[in-house]
Amino acid sequence: MAKATDYKDSDALVKVILYKSKTLADGSHPLMVRITKDRQRKYVSTGLSLQLKHWDDKKAEPRRNCPDRLLVEASINKWKAKFTEAASDLKQEEKPFSALRVAAKAAKSVRKVSVLGFIDEYNDRLNKEKRMGTASTVRDIRRALVRYETDEGRSPEKLLFTEVTPGYLDDFRSTLAERGLAETSMAVYFRTLRLVYNQAIKRGLVHDKHYPFREFKVSQFDLRTRKRAISKEEIGRIVDLKPETARLQLARDLFVFSYYGAGINFVDMAYLTWNDVQNGRLRYERKKTGHLFNFKLSVIAQQILDYYRPLTYKGIDAYVFPILDRHRHQTPKQVDNRIHKILGQVNPDLKVIAQMAGVEVVLTTYVARHSFATALKYSGVATAVISEAMGHQTESITQTYLASFENELIDEAFDNL
């Protein structure tokens, strides 16, 4: 008797299994569609693979500990439905057919999927999962595609994944370059589009044979950032400023706190609560990566906290900086909008701060992070631990070494900031 997870139509049994006879380089096994007809079997790759510990053989489904379990389940269901439909169509022809025929028919019936339609669906899922940062970049690439297709005289809603070829991507890149988009920004666009395409493949909505990023390499973009770190002497001039308005005061304080707070980025500063400040140390989890940070607060960082405590402290769960309000910003969307709004104020305000301090570099919240990394390097910390380019390319390495600041080397380096 067929299990509840099996589809048995038209004398053909369709099931997605973990194909243990083949082991991939990472130790995982491919997920295969197995079509059984008249004691003959045909296997078709789904393009997915899982570790053995993430698969339940009895239920023929991913376990609860499987990464992206819901996404994998949705993909499995689509694969099974597609092949079951093919078998059903063949049965209605009232002619003998084989498992191979089922596979061939299903291959020809791959649904044409609109890129924008899938982006909207994927973005909804990201919002439900509260992955607001990724959702924001996905919305950005959607807007860019809509503008590009419209300018080319095409209907954006009709763009299919199979039409996103290496040539299409190259033309898209040329158009973005003509508009003056920086290489780093283009890299973000194409990485995001690659992510979307990979998700569509995972869900069985487009065959991986159409995958354009094997030929069109995102690595072609020049991601070397201009040196934007400022010196400790310039940091000192910013620290000594006495801003006349509350807005400029907040911008100055966030910049200085980022520098003296291990290069903490703006989003994480917005989320900081007084519970994260304990015994002269700052402990928090980075929103982007989930990495835990724990380091000794410098004198200047502590002074900034002392300034804001009487203004924002309403209990240990209250936010440190006056960016978010628990009563007004409750949903992920409200929080995301508020953070982007304040960041849109802070960076222009930092340009005013730079003029006041006589700093020629265009100040942004990222400059503080970059300056922190550079200061540590010149304080004697090995580049393997703290990289001068503590940005997108090497951030994961830096975070690995900064996950715990308990060791004396880092604490001593902080004293030298």
Largest sheet: 4 strands, antiparallel
From the N-terminal CA to the C-terminal CA, the straight-line distance is 71 Å
Quickly name the level 1 CATH class of the largest domain.
Mainly Alpha
What low-confidence regions span 5 or more consecutive residues with pLDDT below 50?
A: 1-10, 387-395, 399-409
Can you tell me the number of structural domains?
Answer: 3
Describe it.
There is one protein chain. The protein has 417 residues and is of the alpha+beta class. The chain contains 14 helices and 9 strands. The protein has helices spanning 69-92, 99-108, 115-128, 132-151, 166-178, 183-202, 232-239, 246-260, 266-271, 299-312, 332-357, 365-378, 395-402, 408-415, and strands at 7-9, 12-18, 29-37, 40-50, 55-56, 61-62, 277-278, 281-285, 292-296. The strands form 3 sheets. It has a 4-stranded antiparallel β-sheet with strand order 1-2-3-4, covered by helices on one side. Strands 7-8-9 form a 3-stranded antiparallel β-sheet. It is elongated.
Describe the structure in brief:
The protein folds into three domains: 7-108, no CATH class; 115-220; 232-415, Intergrase catalytic core (hpI Integrase, Chain A).
